[in-house]
Write a structure and sequence with these properties.
The protein has helices at 3-11, 16-35, 46-74, 102-126, 153-161, 165-168, 195-202, 206-229, 237-251, 319-326, 382-403, 423-435, 448-453, 466-472, 502-513; strands at 83-86, 89-92, 98-100, 138-141, 173-176, 189-192, 255-261, 279-283, 313-316, 333-336, 356-362, 407-413, 439-441, 457-460, 477-480, 496-499. It has 15 helices and 16 strands.
Length: 516
């Protein structure tokens, strides 16, 4: 049994921080165990392969580990922590040795077969598509927020004139997306469900398509030989599907850069990691990636997979977040460029607002059966979110009567409503809107720069990134923790404050709106 688990039992408190701390020690033992093994993949350094294997093991086991500990605590089970059986991966907590179940072998083999067949099918179809006289290079953006359903004008402006140099300097960009805008603003920025397939079908000469076809035929033999010599590499089976393809494309300098986003923190495939000609970037579209720390926690909580991220460049909002990433020893260039919202501040003149205006930024709570996501403890509960909204509304109603003013309140959701969300919270908001003429739900696709420029105060549930946009615009923002559960861990700023009770909330609203 590891030292941290003994500490947890001694304190009789199990928290996200303590579970992550213990899990991180488990991962370090796996790293030590793998360091003694020579893993041979042609043209790939063993250290790079081991790093990727550990990242994949974390992807497979982190959430499962947390849920198992939570389940055992809830049922008061006495558990032998010498072995963890997590999602088909058996880990010896004493020496970090890993054994894979038949389920893991079968599932990853199936994944390989499916994605290899899709590449094979694409290669066949490519011969019936128009071929270029000479193959052309491409830049890949693996994700962008879906603000471009009708027109991609704002997204194109962000790519071409925004701070991400790998995008602004790119002559041609393929954006991974199932959605194609009804109106496209630039013929050199295109959308495709699989950017690699777009390259294979439309960016190569006929001769190069022939070369690609034979590389794809070679892939299964390369894969089988590798996993036969190194069985543990089966867990990165999907990486093998594109490994030889990206190697060839890179050698031909047909990829200028690959850009991933915060959604890909857990996964950087092997073909993104090796020595290469193209550059890789991770674009942080949010700063809300640090785990929340509750007041009763005894351990610092860091996401277990942060230490294993591997890209050439990080693009972040603030100096404080840069320092946070540097604390993990990342071997990357970290560029501080301000808020990254997939659009730029608009140039239109904004109307002056005569009444007082407050914007709330919430996080729609998920249904209990979908909550967790690797966290031991859920913060964004329906109870908390209802109190967050109610407290602000009631406080503003009190201030309206006390100072004879009108305060208009808009609420902006962090995410688009989906089937995982708790509809009782949405119904609660609808009821409040019906009863309060000056309360409204804001359109999801609004330009936040425009909204915050004319807002007197933004109040956010901890720690949505919107407060840093306000700070950039030199507008006041307040994080409000309605149940007083959290230790403040946000990045300090002249324009950002924190409140954890209703009395202090009222005091800070009065102070910001200059009510006397």
């Amino acid at each position: 049994m590891s030292e941290n688990i003994k500490i947890i039992k001694k304190l009789k408190i199990v928290t996200t921080g303590s579970v992550f701390s213990d899990y991180n020690n488990l991962i370090k033992k796996i790293e030590l165990n793998l360091s003694s093994k020579k893993i041979n993949i042609h043209n790939y350094d063993s250290n790079i392969v081991r790093e990727r294997l550990v990242q994949r093991i974390i992807e497979l086991t982190c959430i499962s580990h947390t849920k198992k500990v939570l389940d055992n605590e809830n049922k008061n089970h006495k558990v032998n922590y010498k072995f963890f059986n997590l999602n088909g991966v058996k880990i010896n907590s004493e020496n970090g040795k890993i054994d894979l179940s038949l389920k893991v072998y079968f599932f990853n083999l199936l994944i390989f077969v499916i994605f290899w067949f899709l590449n094979f099918k694409c290669a066949i179809i490519s011969f019936f598509s128009n071929s270029l006289t000479k193959s052309l290079p491409s830049t890949i953006l693996m994700e962008a927020e879906p603000y471009y359903i009708n027109t991609d004008k704002n997204l194109v402006e962000f790519c071409k004139y925004g701070p991400i140099t790998s995008l602004s300097e790119a002559p041609y960009i393929i954006i991974k997306s199932k959605i194609k805008p009804k109106k496209q603003s630039n013929p050199n920025i295109e959308y495709y469900n699989d950017p690699l397939h777009k390259i294979l079908r439309h960016r190569l000469s006929f001769q190069d398509k022939l070369v690609i076809f034979f590389i794809i035929l070679k892939v299964p033999f390369f894969f089988i030989k590798t996993i036969f010599c190194n069985p543990i590499t089966i867990v990165i089976a999907k990486d093998f599907v594109n490994l030889l393809l990206f190697k060839w494309l890179d050698e031909k300098k047909l990829i200028k850069s690959i850009n991933i986003t915060t959604s890909s923190l857990r996964v950087q495939p092997l073909w993104l990691r090796n020595n290469k000609n193209f550059t890789t970037s991770l674009i942080w579209y949010s700063q809300n990636s640090r785990p929340l720390i509750f007041k009763d926690e005894k351990f610092k909580a860091d996401l277990p997979y942060f230490r294993h991220m591997r890209v050439d460049n990080h693009w972040v909002w603030t100096q404080g977040f840069k320092k946070y990433l540097e604390s993990f020893g990342l071997q990357s260039k970290i560029n501080v460029v301000g808020p990254l919202l997939w659009y730029l501040p608009s140039k239109k003149l904004l109307p002056k607002i005569e009444n007082f205006n407050i914007v709330l930024f919430d996080v729609i709570p998920t249904l209990k059966k979908f909550s967790g996501n690797g966290r031991f403890r859920e913060y964004y509960t329906t109870k908390l979110m209802k109190k967050f909204v109610n407290d602000v509304l009631q406080t503003c109603q009190t201030l309206e009567k006390k100072f004879n003013v009108k305060i208009f309140i808009d609420i902006k959701h962090k995410r688009i409503l989906n089937k995982f969300h708790d509809m009782s919270y949405i119904n609660f908001l609808d009821d409040l809107i019906f009863k309060n003429k000056r309360f409204n739900i804001m359109n999801y696709n609004v330009n936040l720069y425009d909204v915050l420029k004319i807002t007197d105060l933004s109040i956010a549930i901890p720690y949505t990134s919107t407060a840093y946009i306000s700070s950039k615009l030199k507008k006041n923002a307040l994080y409000y923790d309605p149940l007083g559960e959290l230790i403040p861990t946000f990045e300090k700023s002249k324009f950002i404050s924190f409140s954890s009770n209703k009395l202090d909330l009222e005091r800070k609203i009065c102070q910001t709106l200059n009510f006397k």
